[in-house]
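ERR on first pass: missing label on line 2. Operator R.T. fixed the label and resubmitted. Corrected input:
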Amino acid sequence: MDPLDRLRSVGRRITDPAELIAQQVAERVIELLVGALDINGLAARVDLNAVLRRVDLDEILTRIDVNVLLKRVDMSILLDKIDMNAVLDRVDVGAVVDRVDFNDVVRRIDMDALVEQADLGAVIARSSGGAAGEALDLARSQAVGLDQFIDRWVRRMFRRKHPDPLAPPALLPARAEQ
Amino acid sequence: MSVRPPAVGMVSLVGHYAGSVSRFLAYAIDLVVGAGLFALALAATSFVAEVVTGHSINWNRSNIVVAIIFAAWQFFYFGYSWAASGRTVGMAILGLRVVQADGAGLDPWRGIVRALVFPLSFLFFGLGFLGILVQREHRALHDLIAGSAVVYTWDARAARLRFLAREAGIRLTPSTGGDAVPVRITDR
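pass 2 clean. output:
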């Protein structure tokens, strides 16, 4: 038997109980210390702003997957909490409208498709004056069609290269807006 | 059967110089309206004269007095219409209006001048009307003298929208037997 083993076993018999006692003492001390500490008071003394200034939020945000975060958010609850009227009160609608190019919006509208929507079509049809208006539109469109046909032939006959004026000067701006 | 959409209508023609066919049709309607009203007036005059005097009046077309009255009536009909509103009945039907050469509203005196010089366009086999065909602004001789022009007031684009709306108003709705019958929305 190794003589050192005997020494080791004697040492363990002394150190093990001592270690146990030390641990129990330490736990008790910590318990007494925590009980004596005013955590709230301590927290109040901490300058969180200074701590936060040291935090690199950009780095934290780059680590966060916002999409995953948003998937976990119940938007309906969030929206329930938002007072939309209060939000809209703060919106300058006039400024928003000023930034909208309505001419561009109107140009994008497919008018043919629009009037094919039943309700709008019915409204316009009701306001068109019935059969008399329909006949008048037809007669006028036929006459104008013939006007344009004759114009084209006259222009061809006289070999005019420059386009004829469409309207008198005073009526040109109104025409350009249309 | 498919209905063809109006030949024109992608752009509004309001303010454009009016062409020959529209103007001729408007004049033809005015002739009928003017002559009809004149005939009615003669008939009314005859009736009143017969009731009052007991003698009937036979109007003769070759009678110089009748011709002068008719010419005066024509001048009044066109002159008053152009001076008052820039359009006659026929022009209103065809969607036309007389304006000044620059596009401003027609001064009443220009309307009267236009009616006075209008017969000049009939001289030499209607040579004065040739301007409507060949002149760039479609102005006849009486237009050039009176400083006037004829433009469309009819909105072709609006007419096209009305046409499309009418087409959209005819919808195929399923009947009880499962067949489709055309129903006009406006009739509902």
